[in-house]
Design goal:
This protein is about 45% helix and about 20% strand. By secondary structure, it is of the alpha+beta class. The protein folds into two domains: about 180 residues, Regulatory protein AraC (Jelly Rolls); about 110 residues, Arc Repressor Mutant, subunit A (Orthogonal Bundle), CATH 1.10.10.60. Helix 8 crosses helix 9. The longest helix has 22 residues. The chain is globular and about 65 Å long.
């Protein structure tokens, strides 16, 4: 399995919501969310998305992922987006399946906005190196994004009808869109980019990353990881640090503890079992390592989230 596929195994989008919007005339709205990944699917027309520090025009066929922004303003072309009303207020007023933005006979933009909550701890390293808005993925003449085009059309059809399993379908499609946006972004990174995502493209480091994520409980050493990568020990250690920004075992420990935190939040395994799953030889060693990073013991961390579930 390739490195990105293994990395995304523990990235879960949850509580997916979608809004189908039609814009007429000089429409605009503001949208504010925390810890949310958003996708725009442009079914027809064009409009602008303003993140405050960046403005992007979106056109028919584009799919745009907003990964690192708590709020943005969307508005019709030739409109500056001033005095935009919160989208939540507009949704409260109009509870129909399709929200009409402004009045008029002709739509200048038809779009679907999808918002997804996510596990903050597991996706944090990924979001930290992504731009606020990933490049739009329009359908190219060479058919490279033909799969995404099909997904957009299917999602548009799904949003028009009330059928059983609708939320589950949209949630799965949101995950597919995220993967497509991510791999297109990673593939487009120039060689000189200062981002650990470059390791996903590296023919040697990608093997080591995939191995660590696929089997975090293995007794990994620099020597064993170098063998997986097909490099000498010293060359691998230096290359990993240069590209990823930290030594291999530091990266592994960070991943193990983030994975352990997720298991603790899920409340499905004993602390001893979680210790085994993330590669610690004893509960005490695991507890000490976890407390150094999270400030509390695994037991206290689990109880904190158990109370949240009960409340």
């Amino acid at each position: 399995m390739d490195a990105l596929s293994v990395l995304l195994q523990e990235v879960h989008l949850i509580e997916t919501k979608y809004h189908r919007l039609n814009g007429c005339g000089d429409w605009s709205y503001s949208f504010s969310r925390k810890d949310t990944i958003m996708f725009y699917l442009v079914l027809s027309g064009s409009f602008c998305i303003d993140l405050g520090h960046e403005v992007r025009q979106a056109n028919t066929g584009d799919t745009i992922m907003i990964a690192n922004a708590t709020q943005h303003v969307s508005y019709a072309l030739h409109h500056n987006g001033d005095n935009a009303k919160p989208l939540d207020d507009l949704l409260t007023i109009d509870d129909s399946d399709i929200l009409q933005l402004n009045s008029g006979d002709v739509n200048n933009a038809c779009l679907i906005l999808i918002e997804c909550q996510y596990d903050k701890q597991m996706i944090r390293p990924l979001l930290s190196v992504l731009p606020s808005m990933l490049p739009e993925l329009g359908v190219k003449s060479d058919g490279r994004f033909g799969v995404m085009d099909v997904e957009v059309k299917l999602l548009a059809l799904e949003s028009e009808h009330q059928r059983m399993g609708k939320t589950a379908v949209i949630n799965h499609w949101a995950s597919i869109m995220m993967i497509e946006c991510l791999r297109t972004y990673i593939e487009s990174l120039p060689e000189a980019t200062d981002s650990w995502l470059q390791a996903m493209k590296d023919p040697y480091l990608a093997k080591a990353l995939a191995a660590m994520h696929d089997a975090p409980n293995n007794n990994w050493t620099i020597h064993r990881l170098a063998e997986v990568a097909g490099m000498s020990r010293s060359s691998f250690a230096q290359r990993f640090k240069d590209v990823v920004g930290m030594p291999p075992l530091t990266y592994l420990i960070d991943y193990r503890l983030r994975l352990a935190a997720r298991y603790l939040r899920l409340q499905q395994n004993s602390i001893s079992r979680i210790s085994e799953l993330v590669g610690y030889a004893s509960d005490s060693t695991f507890s000490q390592a976890f407390k150094r990073v999270y400030g509390v013991s695994p037991k206290a961390y689990r109880q904190r989230y158990r109370h949240k579930l009960i409340s």
